[in-house]
Specification:
alpha/beta; 3-stranded parallel β-sheet; TIM Barrel; 9 strands; 15 helices
Length: 358
Amino acid sequence: MLQKDLVPPHTGQRPAKVDYKRIATEEAFAPPDLFDMYRKVLADGKADAGFTSLWAFYLSSEAARPQHIRKYIQDLDAARIAHMDEAGIDVQVLSLTSPGVQVFDADTAVSYARSANDYLAEAVRRHPARFVGLTAIAPQNPTEAAKEIERGATQLGMKGVIVNSHTQGEYLSDPKFWDIFAAAEAFDMPVYLHPSSPPPKMIEPFMEAGLDGAIYGFGVDTGLAALRTITAGVFDRFPRLQMILGHMGEALPYWAYRLDYMHAATVRSQRYASMQALQRRPSDYLRENFYITNSGVAWEQAIRFAQEFMGVDRVMYAMDYPYQHVLDEVIALDNMNMAPEIKKAFFQTNAERLFKIG
């Protein structure tokens, strides 16, 4: 495929029947009252520039894409399932849309995370063959976040945890958040590290160029958040912890050589007190403690490279609904030139194993 043809053409066709299930693993929802709460945060003038740039636009713009998102992100019944059927999606792994509760004060965040999780669990009960849920947490209170992970795992039937890249400028690499990792490891809940807008200390040059959102800023900030967990020693402390990165691993697999080389050089130089020796190389943690999804990236070459680097058992399908709902992307991925068993692992069995589906 030539570079000018990276994005699949619009054919108007529906995906064909296939001999594997298509499990989409990064699909967003919002309870009916979430947007009213976001509007209140915006009206209070307390939100950071990233949240304001993102949600002031999506909550008010009359362009086709924001209207589509507002209309369908709140539906967990007929309309969503009709879109799934249209695209040939058998199962959606659902998570609270970014930034979830991480924009609220701690008490509000803890309370609303519980409410959102109850709301999602009820939708999964209505449609158990079509939906799987991830537990939303409030990192603002790590102790309560850990309790919610336990509740999601033991009472609500959740299959993992959703958390966004930073919480009001703070990253999970800070040990004060590590009760979250302890709970996720203890209950065998994979943690999906999802993008958010870059924090105030980072965002200005991105916003100047219109690059703060999904086009670039999301990936930069989320890749940073993931790399910080590695270099902080999170996986030496919690070796069984599994995390998930979307959007082809937020570019980290493609940086792996450089990360290994420069991490070793920096440790030897003793340049930073915050960067100490690890038990393994950064690339080893990527391959052994992370899964990646292709969410929003229907690009065979990138997927095949990730499979070669990560292993075919650690790369999964995602659509990124409703932010992307493009039937031709599904068709393009169905047509990838790879062995049938690898394609089935990509679309179905890796997700079934990780999320304990079926």
